[in-house]
Specification:
By secondary structure, the chain is α+β, with helices and mostly antiparallel strands. The strands form 2 sheets. It has a 5-stranded antiparallel sheet, covered by helices on one side. The longest helix is centred in the middle third of the chain and has 24 residues.
């Protein structure tokens, strides 16, 4: 198995591309070792010194280095690569069975606006953000204030350039195609 690595705009995050599917659909973020109970791979990665967070995408995963760690990426990469290779050779599923949370159902005019927002996120924004090892997810939309709330995940969460991505890229795109959007707020 050959695993590629790529740097991301966030210096504390590296993208690993195993050449095999990571998740069949959607994304999954693990912010703590407690969150890792949903995945054998996440558990083994969190067991390594210096790992502070994980993000799984369709064909990649990102690893966040602990800002308190004295370890540099040259020291962290080999055990991470070994854990990923061991996992894939084990034949275990990436995720254990977990119950999905229910999404808010939007109806009428608000439902149409939210559908447009989600479509733009899925077709225009998420593919670009995924190239940097992250994801952006819809949280909610407040029609009264025109505020769109989004989650930045993976390498994008905590990245110094994420607020510029939101303001200059996503906000201008949304305002252009969905005039009801007046501002964007990041949900942490």
């Amino acid at each position: 198995m050959f695993i590629q690595t790529e740097s991301t705009p966030n210096p504390d995050v590296i993208k690993f591309i195993p050449g095999e599917a990571v998740l069949d659909t959607g994304t999954k973020e693990f912010r703590t070792a407690e969150d890792a109970k949903d995945s054998p791979l996440a558990e083994s990665l969190f067991a390594l010194d210096g790992v502070a967070g994980l993000f799984f995408g369709n064909d990649f995963l990102t690893v966040r280095r602990s800002p308190d760690s004295d370890l540099i990426w040259a020291q962290l990469k080999p055990p991470i690569l070994a854990a990923i290779m061991d996992f894939y050779s084990s034949g275990q599923p990436i995720l254990r069975e977990v119950t999905a949370k229910d999404d808010i159902v939007y109806e009428g005019e608000l439902g149409q606006i939210v559908a447009e927002i989600k479509d733009l996120l899925d077709t225009r924004v998420r593919p670009a953000v995924a190239q940097d090892g992250g994801d952006i997810e819809f949280d909610r939309f407040d029609l009264e204030s025109g505020t769109l709330y989004l989650h930045m995940r993976g390498a994008c969460s905590g990245c110094p350039s994420s607020s510029a991505t939101l303001r200059q890229g996503v906000e201008s795109l949304m305002k252009h195609y969905v005039p009801e959007v007046k501002s964007i707020e990041q949900v942490l």
